[in-house]
Amino acid sequence: MPGLIKSFVQNPAxxxxxxxxxxxxxxxxxxxxxxxxxxxxxxxxxFSSEVLVDGAFPDTFHAPQAVVNVLFHLEKCPDVxxxxxQIRQMIAFDRFRATARREGAHWQLYDLxxxxxVEKRIVETYEVNGEQEIRxxxxxxxxxxxxxxxxxxxxxxIRIVNKSGGRSAMLFRVHHVIGDGIAMVGMMTTLFEQLNxxxxxxDIPEKMGGGTKMGGGSTIGAIMTFLKSxxxxxxxxxxxxxxxxxxxxxxxxxxxxxxxxxxxxMYFPVVSLxxxxxxxxxAGVTINDVLMAATSGMLxxxxxxKKDGKINSMDQKTNxxxxxxxxxxxxxxxxxxxxxxxxxxxxxxxxxxxxxxNEINAKDRLMECCRVSTAAKSSPSAILQLFIQNKVxxxxxxxxxxxxxxxxxxxxxxxxSNVPGPNEHIAICGEKLLSVNVxxxx
Length: 442
Fold this sequence. Notes:
The chain has 16 helices and 13 strands. The chain is an alpha+beta fold. The strands form three sheets. Strands 5-6-7-2-13-12-8 form a seven-stranded mixed beta sheet, sandwiched between helices. A three-stranded antiparallel beta sheet has the order 1-4-3, with helices on one face. A three-stranded mixed beta sheet has the order 10-9-11. β5 (about 125-130), α6 and β6 (about 155-160) form a beta-alpha-beta unit. It starts with a helix and ends with a strand.
């Protein structure tokens, strides 16, 4: 090798040709860096984000658009001028001032540069009389698409003024392509404030929490855990359908095809966070475990109430399959969350978890949910699913990727999801926040 290098160096023609190639390469890289970018384009979308624009399921199932609706109940609707000022802080995040446009076979996000006329592009106002009209209006609005390729961005801030004197509301409709739950939590500081007007802060972990060493620390155990998780991820779309129960009476594709596109929101009573934490601390579990156990108990009681025959009594243990798809959002560096061109993105995958519907009493359901979630935290399933959807499914034809997603979802009974929230009372534009409902009819 030294002799070969020496012969190259001693040959002026070879040296000259090499320098010419190097100079040409440098000129090309410089020209590429300085070349004007398509006007307004932010960046290409990841596979996950593009799926959220195109639709995750086949068109034959008429699934609503992937829009996350967050309903805030307030003592009084925020002043419209103050809301406009708040909106201007939010559109500092690039995806909050963007629309989606198709470029060839793919979608791109385009910056609309909306520094003026914010109220015409984002803020809408409705007037209602009473709580029931708020709910009816919200159900109607939640079924409306947010159009692409327009001069309006992919979100809306809707003021719902209650003229009857009761509580009013704000409905934020945010297309999922803007970002996942962790991304949205990261920008809470621009929307919320403390009741005394001081800035609101929220801490977001930069690393995945919980879990033990995969396979208990042994190499063989780690390999077996990896292979087991890989098999489960690869076969989830062809796994056995969940048992038909009253809450989910049909998992057959034809059942979904024949259903109306209309969705109705069910509002659960407000439960004290202190009460949930007291259970968590007494049992030595997590808040998620408590909520998942309560959901399992709800499904069990509902089936008994509806006399579906699969679960006949709260005192009789059953052996049915009832699973949840659990979205897992991956943490991102704090510096990215503070960077307004990087903070908003989708970086999540779905894992399959059994619910504790078969257990007789609340304590057994709670401990079973704890066991299942603890196993999931020490499993590579979430990261494997993320790799497969971004590196494998992204190469498949669109119809195949959509059918795979539908096959996975239709085999499960529920999607179980939550995101971190504030621990203290907060305000939006100076108005006290009373409650929050997240509505995702997709």
